[in-house]
Amino acid sequence: MPSTAFHLALPVDDLEAAETFYGGILSCPRGRSSPRWIDYDFYGHQLVVHKVAKDDMPAVARNPVDGEAVPASHFGVVLDWDDWDALQSRLKSAGVDYAIAPTTRFAGRQGEQRTCFVRDPAGNHLEFKCFRNPEMLFATEGFDYE
């Protein structure tokens, strides 16, 4: 586990569906749990899903990014190029619907990256991305996009 692992807690309305998605499709190892929540190892970080009533699930705001209406509230992981490809194969094999299909953003420009968005069964948005040049992850100079 990285010494700077983040902790993220999410609302879900069905723990069994969350287990199928996070534990099954994404292959996140399961940690501690109770009848109301489950911990997962999400790429070395602690993700906790908490059961809430369907009516308590938050609405999703969107923000335009490179021609897409990106969910403003989302989380995810930056993978290396080959791991991103392998994840796409798993998502497609599992029949996961994309909220935003796999695409290349900022093609041919600094910060070029491949990205996709999926929703977990409760509607939480996850982004999986990879950079052509991983050094661009936190770069601040020389960008020509809004």
From TrEMBL:
InterPro entries (alphabetical): Glyas_Bleomycin-R_OHBP_Dase, Glyas_Fos-R_dOase_dom, VOC_core
Protein name, per record: Putative dioxygenase of extradiol dioxygenase family
Stretch forming the signal peptide: none
VOC domain boundaries: 4-131
Organism: Congregibacter litoralis KT71
Superkingdom per UniProt: Bacteria
Gene3D superfamilies: 2,3-Dihydroxybiphenyl 1,2-Dioxygenase, domain 1 (3.10.180.10)
An MF annotation (GO) of this entry: dioxygenase activity
SUPFAM superfamilies for this protein: Glyoxalase/Bleomycin resistance protein/Dihydroxybiphenyl dioxygenase
UniProt KW keywords: Dioxygenase, Oxidoreductase
Pfam families associated with the record: Glyoxalase
